[in-house]
Amino acid sequence: MNFKKGEVLFFNKPLGWTSFKVVGHVRYHICRRIGVKKLKVGHAGTLDPLATGVMIVCTGKATKRIEEFQYHTKEYVATIRLGATTPSYDLEHEIDATYPTEGQLHPRVCGNVTHLLEHFVREKGVLSWEDAVHKLTLGPAEVLGVRGKGCLAAGYDADVCVFAPGALHARAAYTDPVQTSQGMTHVMVNGAFAIRNGQLTGEKCGKIITQM
């Protein structure tokens, strides 16, 4: 095998090993075998340390094919336990709580938007406020081709949310998923108040979009 010219290798990644560790071991042993200090080695897709399965490792000039392999169809086999959670949200820790699943709504049904703004914008800074608002409004409206939505402009439906960024908090939880979020002061739908001063008004001012 010509590892410098390029080879495509397949490894069954052991449980607990990172993809980086696999690549490191491959590079070390090949370099020792062929008597070189450096060798270009890369992998076509990362596997979680707690996952096992086939890893494609390329050497030398074959690393140029990594992107090609990444676009191939992949198949994953997993065992899922609904309603169970761990402190780290993966199997690195033991299950510490279980929740009912029959007829139970997911907390994101009521808290999805607030969670995005609270966690990924205010706390983590992954998105700016402007980018997040665009992601929730005009962005999807343009993708779906919905006219008259997603922008504060003449001729558009008056859908407006007024909120205090520092007060936003998603209260919905697995134990009680049907809870409104905190920090949303006013919500107008088609020009009428659905929420005013943080309280539901009872107005049913939405409409079904049948054409885009």
Walkthrough of the structure:
The model has no long low-confidence stretch (mean pLDDT 90). The protein has a four-stranded antiparallel beta sheet with strand order 6-7-8-9, with no helix packed on it. The protein has a three-stranded antiparallel beta sheet with strand order 1-3-2, covered by helices on one side. The chain has helices spanning 19-34, 66-70, 108-123, 129-136, 138-144; strands spanning 7-13, 41-43, 53-59, 84-85, 97-98, 160-163, 184-189, 192-196, 199-200. With 212 residues, the chain is an alpha+beta fold.
Q: Evaluate the radius of gyration.
A: 25 Å
Largest sheet: 4 strands, antiparallel
Structural class: alpha+beta
The largest sheet has its strands arranged as 6-7-8-9
Oligomer: single chain
> In percent, how helical is the residue content?
10-25%
Give the count of helical stretches.
5
Number of strands: 9
Distance between the termini: 58 Å
Low-pLDDT sequence parts? none
Approximate shape: elongated
What is the helix/strand order?
EHEEHEEHHHEEEE
Kindly report the average pLDDT value: 90
The portion of residues forming beta strands comes to: 15-25%
Features:
212 residues; alpha+beta; three-stranded antiparallel sheet; 9 strands; 25% helix
Topology:
Elements: E1 7-13, H1 19-34, E2 41-43, E3 53-59, H2 66-70, E4 84-85, E5 97-98, H3 108-123, H4 129-136, H5 138-144, E6 160-163, E7 184-189, E8 192-196, E9 199-200
Antiparallel strand pairs: 1-3, 2-3, 4-5, 6-7, 7-8, 8-9
